[in-house]
Amino acid sequence: MSSRAEIRAEADRLFAAFQAAGAAPVEADILQPAETLLDLYGEDIRARAYVTQDPLRGEMMLRPDFTVPVVQAHMAHGADPARYCYLGEVFRKQDHPGRQASEYLQVGFEVFDRTAPEAADAEVFALFSSLLAPCNLRPATGDIGILMAAVRGLGTTERRRAALLRHIWRPARFRALLDRFSGRAPVAPARAELLARLASDKAEALIAAAGPMTGLRSGAEIAARAASLLEDAQTPPLAAPEAALLYDLLSLQAPAGAALAHLRGITAMLPAIAPAVDRFAARLDALEARGIDTASLPFEASHGRSTLEYYDGFVFSFESAVKGPPVASGGRYDALTAVLGQGRSIPAVGGVIRPALVAGLKGAAT
Description:
With 366 residues, the chain is an alpha+beta fold. Among the domains are: 128 residues, Bira Bifunctional Protein, Domain 2 (BirA Bifunctional Protein, domain 2, 2-Layer Sandwich); 51 residues, no CATH class. Helix 6 runs antiparallel to helix 7 and helix 12 runs antiparallel to helix 13. The model has no long low-confidence stretch (mean pLDDT 88).
């Protein structure tokens, strides 16, 4: 295990390298307003963050990462284009004992640039690849934007498309929904019983028969939810060819160059992904221009789907042979800038490195 001094020295080295690459150093408060993070990620973030109550500022969280406060600061008064870097502690709850730390140093690099987003993707990935080269890590890349485009293009109801998009970052839940919407999974007995009860009488009568209201939802909200469940039950399953292509996309793992050829081959049958595939191709060209061999670069269409829920395009990570969290990870989060920019947005991409893991790998090598 590396000493605190060794970890700090590695963090300082990475931080200096990001500044040398043109990034302006920024800081962020350790205590962050919980409301913003809950609005972005929903209540799921509570399971991963430390939450406290402040008598003046309300509910607060120990900083789970830097991206949100950096985006907020940039959208408030940042230049365009801009590059930022940061160094500091982040805090994540762990639900079982093990090697993963609940408090650790994080060093990051973010690029805000609307002129050439794919070139910015390549810049960030190539910089990380260069800095981490001595660690002999396995790179992994993906593109959540392609999967999101495929879902948006499905020939089904807006309600079902929205449900799939909402759970893209929860692979098990997404797969369960896809199995149900495609007709591959039977309706669960409990769900079938609920639907039968809802169809047997008006929702208002069922609510009245259930007794006093004890939850937070109003009777009107419950009735609307019941109506949506009945409507969804009458929705035809996804067309078999569409469902098959989506399952194919979820399982796609190949070197990036070969993955592009595969995606080009299915675009005619799934035309909604065409713009995202074009961006993928442009990114590979930009990576090649920076010396990255895309013929051997691993690509997984589902990569990055269990991270924080703001990535909506290119995603990447660098992992060691030792089981544990990625040494580095990052991706594109254009939609987040729109949410935090109150109507304004700018393409943005970035990534983080855990210097403790880098220091540990270097120490093991010596």
